[in-house]
Amino acid sequence: MIISVKEVINFLISVLIPLIVGFSSSIVTRLLAGVDISAYYSQLIKPGFAPPSFIFPIVWTILYILMGISAYKILKKGYELPKVKDAMFYYWLQLGLNFIWSILFFGLDLRLTSLITLGIIIIVVVVMSIKFFKIDKKAAYLNIPYILWLLYAFALNYFIWMINK
């Protein structure tokens, strides 16, 4: 099977978009907080199950790549299809909410608002994954680590909010 240059470019763009969104969010957050996210995180009182700060950029990079691959697989089915447009709406929505979360949590110190936002992200990602599943099962499966991480992040966000009131 020969892959065209256009397909390679589409794939790279699909993977780069979530990476750029995540990186941009961290820049905005750093500007608002006036401190590096890992420095802010280290100052919080955290539950025992909280990972060290160096884990987050590694995990998020992997998740953003999986997210991009997933979106690419869906878009390959044809953006003109109503079910693809519908599924991609939820993809873009979750990506936008994802962008906002770290700004709320770290940049604006709004831990309860970020917790609510994270709950909404989880719902949107589950809906997105169901819609992806109806189009391409592998694309949906690629989002399982993301859903699991979001559930973990929700618990972490909740306990950090409670402990640091």
Model description:
- The protein has a single domain (5-163), classed as Ferritin.
- The protein is mostly helical.
- The chain starts with a helix and ends with a helix.
- The chain is built from seven helices and no strands.
- Helix 1 (5-33) runs antiparallel to helix 3, helix 1 packs parallel to helix 4 (82-107) and helix 4 (82-107) runs antiparallel to helix 5.
- The model has no long low-confidence stretch (mean pLDDT 95).
Concise summary:
By secondary structure, the chain is mostly helical. It is built from 7 helices and no strands. The chain has a single domain, classed as Up-down Bundle (Ferritin).
Roughly how much helix do the residues carry, as a percent range? Answer: over 70%
| Known CATH architecture | Up-down Bundle
CATH class: Mainly Alpha
| Count of separate structural domains | 1
The chain-level structural class is mainly alpha
- Characterize the biggest β-sheet: none
Mean pLDDT: 95
Spans where pLDDT lies below 50 across 5 or more residues: none
Overall 3D shape? elongated
* Tally of contiguous helical segments: 7
Radius of gyration in whole Å, from Cα? 17 Å
Strand content: under 5%
**CATH H-level superfamily title:** TspO/MBR protein
Give the N-terminus to C-terminus distance in angstroms: 57 Å
H/E element sequence: HHHHHHH
Number of strands: 0
CATH topology: Ferritin
Strands, helices and their partners?
Elements: H1 5-33, H2 37-43, H3 55-75, H4 82-107, H5 111-135, H6 137-141, H7 144-163
Helix pairs in contact: 1-3, 1-4, 4-5, 5-7
Give keywords.
elongated; 7 helices; single chain; mainly alpha; 165 residues; Ferritin
